[in-house]
């Protein structure tokens, strides 16, 4: 068994994560199908010849369609700045704007300030990436500030010189209660399985397409289980 785990650490780890995240599958949930699209860009600032590109920028835009992918209910823009402490570790600070337009309810705007520590490494079987994020959330339909913790873990495994398999899981935990609806505790889990491909020889562009399972824990109503086609374009310079 130990030999099997050493040979397939990605598969075993994510099977366990998905099993834990899907523990409520037998409970009553509201199910929906959606399509999420995202464009994410990242690069380095070069201030002078002595600069090694440790200062970095990040820009992200997303559109999320729900109700069987017929209704655009959420838009997101997320810029940020980071500093590369080492080859494996970087620290980030950024802002995010999210507009929510759920069917049958008033639209709301959310503004976030986020702090993040990112870690990456390479192994014989592939690559690993983790992201620990703390968010300060402000919503237009309330006065309180919500604090949320997010932990993201991703594995990729090369399939060829161009294609790779991608698996990741992210857990969301609210740290306090707010007057606009946040409740302290576990609130959401996202699990993704898909394929990625480098578009150009220099590897500045790559795409990832796959299945995303979003489970939302609703304290005051039926939980949500969203089955999503996730399409992502990554740009890096």
Model description:
It is a single chain. This protein is mainly beta. The chain has one domain: Porin, CATH 2.40.160. 8% of the residues lie in helices and 63% in strands. It contains 2 helices and 11 strands, in the order ααβββββββββββ. It has helices at 2-7, 9-21; strands at residues 29-44, 55-66, 71-84, 89-100, 108-123, 126-139, 145-158, 163-174, 185-198, 205-216, 223-236. An 11-stranded mixed β-barrel has the order 1-2-3-4-5-6-7-8-9-10-11. The longest helix is centred in the N-terminal third of the chain and has 13 residues, at 9-21. The radius of gyration is 19 Å and the shape is globular.
Tag the structure with descriptive keywords.
237 residues, mainly beta, Porin, eleven-stranded mixed β-barrel, 63% strand
Tally the beta strands.
11
Under the CATH scheme, the architecture is Beta Barrel
Going by helix content, strand content and strand pairing, the class is mainly beta
Helices, by number, come to 2
Name the CATH class. Mainly Beta
Order the strands across the largest sheet as they lie in space: 1-2-3-4-5-6-7-8-9-10-11
- Summarize the helix and strand pattern as letters: HHEEEEEEEEEEE
The CATH topology turns out to be Porin
Beta-strand percentage? over 45%
Report the average pLDDT across residues.
90
Helical residue percent?
under 10%
């Amino acid at each position: 068994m130990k030999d099997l785990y050493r040979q397939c650490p990605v598969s075993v780890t994510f099977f366990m994560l998905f099993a834990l995240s899907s523990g409520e599958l037998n409970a009553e949930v509201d199910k929906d199908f959606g399509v999420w699209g995202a464009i994410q860009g990242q690069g380095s600032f070069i201030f002078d010849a002595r600069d090694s590109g440790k200062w970095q920028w990040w820009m992200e835009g997303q559109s999320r369609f729900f109700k069987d992918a017929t209704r655009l209910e959420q838009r997101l823009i997320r810029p940020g700045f980071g500093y590369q402490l080492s080859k494996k570790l970087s620290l980030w600070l950024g802002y995010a704007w999210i507009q929510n337009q759920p069917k049958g309810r008033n639209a709301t705007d959310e503004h976030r300030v986020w702090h993040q520590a990112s870690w990456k490494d390479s192994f014989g079987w592939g690559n690993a990436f983790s992201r620990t994020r703390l968010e300060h959330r402000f919503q237009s339909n309330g006065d309180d500030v919500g604090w949320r913790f997010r932990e993201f873990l991703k594995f990729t495994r090369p399939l060829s010189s161009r294609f790779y398999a991608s698996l990741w899981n992210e857990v969301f935990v609210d740290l306090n209660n707010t007057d606009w609806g946040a409740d302290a505790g576990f609130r959401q889990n996202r699990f993704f399985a898909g394929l990625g491909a480098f578009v150009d020889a220099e590897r500045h562009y790559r795409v990832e397409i796959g299945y995303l399972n979003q489970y939302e824990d609703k304290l005051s109503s039926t939980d949500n289980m969203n089955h999503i086609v996730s399409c992502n374009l990554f740009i890096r310079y």
